[in-house]
Specification:
With 284 residues, the protein is an alpha/beta fold. It has 9 helices and 16 strands. The N terminus is likely disordered.
């Protein structure tokens, strides 16, 4: 999709410039001219894309290969009017950023998002004198370090953050697990049906009775659909009732209308969240 876009797009991201959301956006839209619209929360990211004209498209993290699904973002997706029109996978590589002249011995504390800190615990276990302090955002930690020039402080953030805020990369790729990927969804108000797609996302609920979910899953099998993910979350206010999110692929989208029609027989609610092309993998 990215290589075909020529006009400038306003892309809403969670975080500030230099965040992994920005890297994912630039990876997906490649050489297209984009304008980043930073948002402090995922709720605001959805809001400015839905209706007030501040952003054309939102990009939102939905799951991580280590930490799992972002369940609040699934809730936001379900409650919004936006459709999934694409996805991108980003390998998350964490850098230890400092002011020029710092060393591991001179560092007293390192700030970053709780997830980034958790993903770098092995590295810091070898440097127990460094205090790890949780913050709101990886890129924000880098920005504050650059702005206030605090000696003895470091930040865990991306290479883009290091470049944006003129910081030194004291240690590269300090994440414990190097197979650390985050999946991001491309969200927008759907203007027209996609001409080509090979991945579909749905949400649905079923009656709380024996075999109800199995009946839905059997439909995927009968139509040759490969279920790539299924995720459940409680339906608030309905005791022991669950909403399911499912992603699946198949060879031909021509069978989708028949598949949806058959699934409706076994569900109490059904929503098509998006039809799109399977995403590519990128490095951060």
């Amino acid at each position: 999709m990215g290589s075909n876009i020529t006009s400038q797009l306003r892309i809403a991201i969670q975080g500030i410039p230099g965040a992994f959301h920005e890297i994912a956006a630039r990876s997906y839209f490649e050489s297209a001219q984009i304008e980043i619209r930073p948002c402090p929360t995922f709720e605001q990211l959805i809001s400015i894309t839905e209706g007030n004209g501040e952003a054309d498209i939102a990009i939102m993290a939905i799951e991580n290969s280590i930490a799992g699904s972002l369940m609040n973002n699934y809730r936001l997706l379900q409650e919004s009017s936006l459709s999934i029109t694409g996805e991108v996978f980003l390998r998350i590589r964490h850098q230890l950023l400092t002011l020029p002249g710092e060393s591991l011995a001179s560092l007293r504390e390192v700030h970053s998002h709780p997830m980034a800190i958790a993903q770098c615990k092995t590295f810091f276990s070898r440097h127990p004198h460094i205090r790890l302090i949780e913050s709101q955002d990886t890129a924000l930690s880098a920005q504050e370090l650059s702005q206030y020039k605090i000696e003895g402080r470091g930040a865990i953030a991306s290479k883009l953050a290091a470049s944006n805020y003129d910081l030194h990369i004291l240690a590269s790729n300090i994440e414990t697990n190097h197979q650390n990927y985050t999946r991001f969804l491309i969200l927008e108000q759907l203007q027209s049906e996609p001409l080509e797609f090979n991945r579909v996302s749905l949400s649905f609920s079923v009656k709380h009775e024996v075999g109800s979910l199995l009946k839905v899953l059997s439909v995927f099998e009968s139509f040759g659909a490969n279920l790539t993910k299924i995720q459940s979350t409680p339906i608030v206010g309905q005791k022991w009732e669950y909403l399911f999110f499912a992603d699946f692929t198949f060879r031909s989208g021509e069978v989708l209308p028949q598949l949806l029609e058959k699934i409706k027989r076994y569900t109490t609610s059904l929503r098509l969240l998006g039809k799109y092309q399977k995403g590519n993998y990128h490095e951060s």
